[in-house]
Specification:
Chain A is an alpha/beta fold. Chain A contains 13 helices and 24 strands. The longest helix of chain A is centred in the first third of the chain and has 16 residues. The longest helix of chain B has 19 residues.
Chain lengths: 478, 432
């Protein structure tokens, strides 16, 4: 396990290999024909194609957003491959049936499926370049009624469920990239936890972008019925390419009465080289709806990769007494950009939200927190606490805070606090004179700075994340 | 669209009227013309502009205004002059500086010039500042102000002069007028002064004040600047204040917003050298259907400067408040110490607050923080006072009063403080 972590955490991106699996791609470019082709290849029902086409037509009317606190080159949307799937489409019940080359890839990534099944009790729905190839623990989950499968399968097997909820939290015309995703999404996860069921294991998907120049458009939909509970973990890695790769995922969470969803992300995609060449554009729409009374949605994210990370996992607090949480660590180095934060929309009575955001900027990077707390007129006794701290390492990086606070109810209590600081000489000196190496001291201080977020992560993730930060910052201080 | 065109035609007529009578030098005429062109093309900003996201300018766009025809106010100004400034006040009437109405007996060590005088004696300074400090392209309001530059005021505190009395600048306007006062203030090396910029109500008049105040502090200068905005409750008001601060200088401002139906104050302070300090504090008290907006920007361009922003608000009735405070710390501004706080009491269920405190930091050797709260009085504090025998309503009023007093107390002039206290207490007694 430790060795795997070392690899995962390595600052010099070590996953720059392309797995030699035959990949089926369609020609570059986007038009209604492409969408029909994607839909056909995935054997989708008519309503799904309609959904995609409607989204596409909306997308055509929309303008690429440019309000982020950063610049990026114009994306040629006709120069993207919108569908890539391994040609051999395996449907397998055991690991033995899986392509050995693919298994070796996971091995290199430190995600040995075989080991994890036993060690971590995690059901892994591994999305390999948009198509799921191995699903474990499916049977066990099925027994208690939890549906955990690729969304493309769910569209065929549970069309009514998908149709009811898909696009209900992130409407197809929500924003430019969400519309694009709705039109062309390749695959992703679908989770349905029935009434009163507490999902016995943490669900996990490892995404991996593989085919060169293929945009990745993941779509995730998680539904927790009355009184249900589910924790979902998402982790990402990507191979090293010189062309920018666009990733525009959409994640929708729905929590009904007394339900709880906990969504954790560790993101370590290729960030580009020291000059910012290459690297992933991570433009993601993540939103949860606390539809029911006493429901709860919690986002935890550790964002360390990507050339540009641009996302605001949000919670719409509709149900009375519902709770929204957002815990985030965003680390940027070299020429990376992160413009991330959250939106907490308070609609119901006695709704509460907590935002804890830690931004660490090193090198020439640009790290922004941008968040919205909105208290609507009917949200009696709403409560929000926001804390966003930034740490700067070096004098060439930038840390920004853009909180938007809109209050329309006088029983609301909203607090926002933000600080900016650096690792002080004294702190370093103190640790070093106790015999701790400088690099370890930095790592220790950073981990202390991020503690409030890390403790929200599942244990294995927390360990991984701590290592990741330390190594990402190697050589940045001193 | 049709109304938009109509409005611009209206300003067009006013502009031509004002411009055709001008005997100003070519550079100023050119500037005014360009500014008006800019306004004609762009109009007032819209919420699509991030800086105007929460600020709707439509109420102004809908209104029609005219230029002043009277040269002197019909009412007496005496009761609008503070006790401390009886012999040191300057008067703007309908946006124009009127020397005959002003009195500087007690502050003979400062120099004042109307723009028509300054264009003869200090033409270069005027050109430099009017074209470069607050540029007309900033937005439709600064463009409109620039287009209508006539008789502004150039206030010069000469080197090492310590002005012992506070100077009041009084602004009064009459019904239907668009007033575009423009002021340049230059505090020379080692000079010290206290300024009270006061917009005082003229009953229920409906008018539009669009002021631009440009302030420069040279090295080791100190300016205390109190701004009291108590326009009529039918008035529209916007002031753009721009401050440049030299080495080891101190700019300390307190901004009180009580009046106007629709108001906005944009204040930006920029350090031009090292080791200077800026304090920008404010209090806004709104009720009824008032709209009050504050945009403050502190720009740390140089090392070892310190800034503090402390804004408080009491928001009642159906009023709406917008606050946007920014701190920039530029590359190379080492040793920056910058803090900002915005606290709001939301007293009514129909009131609304949109606050947006911002930090943009390009340097690691800094100490920066900001905080913003929106809420009510602390239950525990009310309970504490009630346990001492105070009725709930009185306890609440006392705490609200205390909340606001922190800012009012910064104004060291007794009569100014007294009038503000009175306004605050009046506001509270309504709630008893």
């Amino acid at each position: 396990m430790t060795k795997a972590l070392e690899i995962l955490a390595n600052r010099e991106y070590k996953y720059g290999f392309v797995t030699q699996i035959e990949t089926e791609t369609i020609p570059k470019g986007l038009n209604e024909e492409t969408i029909k082709l994607i839909s056909k290849k995935k054997d989708e029902p008519e309503w799904m194609l309609e959904f995609r086409l409607k989204a596409y037509r909306q997308w055509l009317k929309m303008k690429e957003p440019r309000w982020g606190n950063f610049e990026y080159p114009k994306i040629d949307f006709q120069d993207i491959t919108y569908y890539a799937a391994p040609k051999k489409k395996p449907k397998k019940n055991s690991l033995e049936e899986v392509d050995p080359e693919l298994l070796r890839t996971f091995e290199k990534l430190g995600i040995p499926l075989s080991e994890q099944k036993m060690l971590a009790n995690v059901a892994v729905d591994a999305v390999f370049d948009s198509v799921s190839v191995a699903t474990t623990f499916k049977e066990k989950l099925k027994k208690i009624g939890v549906i955990f499968m690729p969304i493309s399968e769910a569209i065929r097997e549970y069309p009514d469920l998908v149709r009811e909820y898909l696009g209900s939290v992130v409407p197809i015309n929500d924003n430019f990239y969400a519309a694009l995703n709705s039109a062309v999404f390749s695959d992703g996860s679908f989770v349905y936890v029935p009434k009163g069921v507490r999902c016995p294991m943490e669900l996990s998907t490892y995404f991996r972008i593989n085919t060169q120049e293929s945009g990745q458009f993941e779509r995730t939909l998680i539904i927790a019925e009355e009184g249900a509970y589910v924790a979902y973990n998402e982790g990402c890695t990507a191979p090293q390419f010189d062309t920018n790769q666009l990733h525009a995922a959409v994640v929708e969470l729905i929590a009904l009465d007394n339900a709880e969803i906990k969504y954790s992300t560790v993101q370590n995609w290729y960030a580009g080289d020291e000059n910012g060449v290459g690297g992933i554009y991570n433009f993601v729409t993540k939103r949860g709806a606390c539809r029911g009374k006493n429901s709860k949605i919690s986002w935890t994210q550790v964002e360390t990769g990507s050339a540009i990370t641009w996302k605001y996992p949000s919670v719409i607090l509709q149900g009375d007494n519902s709770i929204g949480e957002f815990y985030s660590v965003a680390l940027t180095n070299n020429k990376q950009v992160a413009d991330t934060g959250t939106k907490m929309i308070h609609i119901g009575k006695n709704t509460r939200s907590t935002i804890v955001s830690k931004g660490i900027a090193a090198g020439y990077s640009n790290n922004s927190y941008r968040g919205l707390v909105k208290i609507l007129p009917k949200a009696e006794n709403a409560r929000n606490y926001t804390q966003c701290d930034s740490m700067l390492i070096g004098d060439k990086c930038r840390a920004n805070t853009f909180p938007y606070i809109e209050v329309m109810n006088n029983t609301a209590k909203v607090e926002h606090e933000a600080t900016t600081s650096r690792i002080s000489e004294e702190q370093l000196f103190y640790l070093q004179q106790r015999g701790i190496k400088q690099e370890d001291a930095v790592s220790l201080i950073i981990n202390g700075f991020c503690k409030e977020v890390f403790r929200e992560l599942p244990m294995e993730y927390a360990v991984e994340a701590q290592k990741l930060l330390g190594l990402k910052l190697e050589g940045s201080v001193g | 669209m049709i109304t938009q065109v109509k409005k611009q035609n209206l300003y067009e007529e006013l502009f031509q009227k004002s411009f055709s009578q001008s005997t100003q030098p070519a550079w100023l005429k050119d500037l005014r013309l360009k500014a008006f062109e800019y306004f004609s093309q762009n109009g007032f900003p819209t919420p699509e502009d991030e800086e105007w996201k929460y600020t709707n300018t439509a109420p102004i766009t809908r209104e029609q205004f005219s230029l002043s025809v009277e040269k002197k106010p019909s009412t007496q100004l005496e009761n609008l002059i503070y006790k401390e400034t009886q012999r040191s006040y300057l008067v703007f009437f309908n946006g124009q500086f009127i020397r005959e109405l002003s009195n500087l007996e007690a502050a003979s060590n400062i120099e004042i010039f109307s723009f028509s005088e300054a264009l003869k004696t200090n033409n270069e300074i005027l050109e430099e500042k009017l074209t470069k400090q607050v540029q007309y392209q900033r937005n439709g309001f600064t463009a409109l102000n620039t287009a209508f530059i006539e008789n502004g005021l150039f206030l010069h505190i000469p080197e090492n002069q310590k002005v012992s009395v506070p100077i009041q600048i009084l602004f009064v306007s009459t019904e239907n007028v668009i007033a575009t006062p423009r002021i340049l203030i230059l505090v020379a090396k080692g000079a010290e002064a206290t300024l009270i910029e006061s917009y005082l109500r003229s009953e229920q008049a409906r008018y539009f004040t669009n002021a631009v105040i440009e302030i420069s502090l040279e090295d080791r200068a100190t300016l205390k600047h109190h701004r009291i905005q108590r326009e009529s409750h039918n008035a529209f008001h916007i002031t753009t204040t721009d401050v440049e601060i030299g080495e080891e200088s101190i700019y300390d401002s307190t901004n009180i917003t009580l009046g106007a139906k629709w108001s906005r104050h944009e204040i930006s302070a920029k350090f031009t050298k090292e080791k200077a300090e800026v304090f920008v504090d404010g209090l806004y008290l709104t009720s009824g259907e008032q709209f009050a907006d504050t945009h403050s920007v502190i720009d740390h361009l140089h090392p070892n400067c310190k800034s503090r922003q402390n804004y408080k608000g009491i928001v009642d009735g159906k009023s709406r408040v917008v606050f946007n405070g920014k701190i920039f710390v530029r590359e190379g501004a080492k040793g920056t110490d910058a803090h900002q706080s915005n606290k709001n009491l939301l007293l009514s269920s129909n009131a609304r607050i949109d606050t947006k405190p911002q930090l943009e930091i390009f340097n690691d050797d800094v100490q920066c923080s900001h905080g913003a709260t929106v809420g009510q009085l602390e239950e525990e504090e009310i309970f504490y006072l009630m346990s001492r025998g105070l009725p709930a309503s009185l306890a609440k009023n006392l705490l609200t009063y205390g909340f606001a007093e922190e800012i009012i107390n910064k104004i060291e002039l007794e009569s100014v403080k007294a009038t503000l206290d009175e306004a605050l207490l009046n506001r509270l007694s309504v709630r008893l």
